[in-house]
TrEMBL record:
This is Methyltransferase, FkbM family. The lineage of its organism: Archaea, Methanobacteriati, Methanobacteriota, Stenosarchaea group, Halobacteria. Residues 70-254 form the Methyltransferase FkbM domain. Pfam families: Methyltransf_21 (PF05050). The keyword Methyltransferase applies. It comes from Halorubrum cibi.
Amino acid sequence: MSVLDTPAWLERVGFRTLYRLADLTYALGVATPKRTVAGTYWSYEPTNPHGDDPGLAALDRIPNDATVLDVGAHVGEHAIPLAADTDRRVVAFEPNGESADRLVRNAARNGLAAGTDRRLDLRRAGLGDERGSLPFYRSTFSKCSAFDRDRATRWGARVDAVEEVPVFRLDDLVEGVVAAGVDVAADATPAGDPVTPPDAIKVDVEGRELAVLRGAEATIRAHRPLLVVEVHDGTAGDDRADALRSWIAERDYDVDERGDVWVCRG
């Protein structure tokens, strides 16, 4: 192995160690307090990657009775601190079954019954710009699991399983939104009850950010929610990032880029 290969090798070892540690903390039931810009909560995760997240800080500034949609909720690192000790309603979308199960455990540790408690409503589905189903690649590094096989195999991970998961357009789910000339919220039963119009939408979906926003265009136009987007491949000149930036700007949103986190206000 050359010296030039060492950083990539160390990165792979670091991620492998991290995910094995997470498996252990969940198996043993070891929860620790996580201090964040939105308050302290308990989690079985061994690390606290979003403790000083600027997007989480922006979301926490919205009113305590607001509705927040967490698209790509993972294990609840945004959803739980935003819901805990407030009157907010957080609707969390997570297509990865393992991550969703861990979100439920973390929520329960904080006194939130995910899926039944009005403050934290878990939907085990993906969002995009078309309704149907897509193959979802379960990665051995759970955070890498994605609708894209290449992303599921980053940092030395491998695909552990492939499963078809339901995908909805957000415009098909939000109460009272009319998309393509048809009010379709009444047909949202497969993903649960119609969703309250959002005050904020957070998106972290491993490269499918633009598809999620396109599927929420009518909702965004009608309600002008705060948008917090974690951008993958977000460097200047990247085609995906440039297309995403243009789409958001064309809807009269100001984009405040904080590294990989974009805080967008209309």
